[in-house]
Fold:
Amino acid sequence: MQNLKPITEIAVENGLPVDELELYGKYKAKVPYTLINQDKANNSKLILMTSTTPNKAGAGKTTTSIALAQGLKKLGKKATLALREPSLGPVFGMKGGATGGGLSSVHPSNDINLHFNGDFHAITAANNLIAALVDNYRYYNKKNNPLTKIYWKRALDMNDRSLRSMIAGLEGNGLPTETGFDITAASEIMAIFCLAESLVDLEHRINNIRIGKRADGSAFYFGELESTGAVIALLQQAIHPNLVQTTEGVPAFIHGGPFANIAHGCNSVLATRMAMTYGDYAITEAGFGADLGAEKFMNIKCRAAHLQPAATVIVTNSMSLKLHGGLAEQAMKKPAEQELRLGLKNLERHVENMQSFNQKVIVAYNKFPFDSENEIGIVEQWCKDRNIPFAEHEGFAKGSAGCKKLAQTVIESTLDKNEKPITFTYSENDSIEDKLKKIVQKIYRGSSISFSSQALANLKKLSADEQKLPICIAKTQYSFTQDAGISGAPENFEINFKELIVNRGAGFLVAVAGEMLRMPGLPKIPQATKIKIENGEIAGLL
Structure:
């Protein structure tokens, strides 16, 4: 194991009261959310980490977030991290773990990537308790305006395509019902968990879940079952942020883990505020490219929690840019200046999008040993021509020593604490159609939207207050379009919405673009084939 400090020592060094911690062994702890101090949080500078559109190369967002926090510490600044918890789906699937890499990692990484402190299990159990209670109510209440439709699905923190669609209630065990599973990271309980600001707020949101409809067409809410206390009992420990540490002892609050392609893609509001309470600089990230996680961070999380980032860092690297410029995957580590220049169009799109939110934007170039100085110079000059702060970093290979330039750039770019208020992409009073059009046209650069018959039916059934909810678009992470095979910076395309899902407890609508699935499948050769136990230790867990 990495040479770690006891988590109590990390707490003492950063002003957290040790006697308030709930220890999970020597290197992990829960921190009561009641320790959040909003006055202190208001004086912290929140830095959002996002990236260019992901592809086979990735960008290195989590590694860069950790490296930046360590670089800030190296320069004498009090820095903290607020990151998402990994899901077992990607860990055993295609992507692998989510704890950074090299000398810019969070630890104990194997624990974090697997069961951690049990949060995902608690969220899964809470989701499935709701499903069982609703099915049970329907079983015993077949008269007097019974439930005719249940929207709620069960959840599992695993990629399992066989569970996407199924029939429940066979052989007399309830009413035969078409249902299925979502991966836990895409569940409404996960979204509620990450947006709740207290146990009281959590209870209110769970009561407000629109769970189904009755024979007369009226909505059925979970609060009608008067069982919310049981669900809260499963979540009362999980709701407190988890404290761990980076390779160089920076405190990291890792809590919640919604996906950004099929959910809103941000760690919990409580972890973010905790990081801001104990850090002069709080680094957080939003999943996938800026068109997904960062857009939702601004339009959903910041709107709901009244957060104001001091700056947004967009991370990219040479391989990712070259792939966006049309280079073949097998050649992405070789010099290819023409494709690199073409790939800058993708970076430009993300920079413009984040500037549309009134954000100060910094470009972080994740440097690899095979990168040429000419290629780095092309990206740096591109940024200079547009007055965009630029810094390369080598956080993976060198830790804080390789990220001092980026840290200094962030410090200089955020000297003025009077940030401009966020300009949201849409107003809550816009119609659902207008909200979707504004995201598609302003953020994706598409030209139009369309709806399936199911989505049109969903749209017509929305109540007046549901029409005011923010929008969470479920869309492929690999493209601005709904077609994963179209990279770069395409324009003038159509986005078709297949379904509109009301996540009333979470406080947003999910608009499913194209054939996006809320339960992923495993690849032909999963990461699970590479994981084993060697000498009593887990090996192969990326």
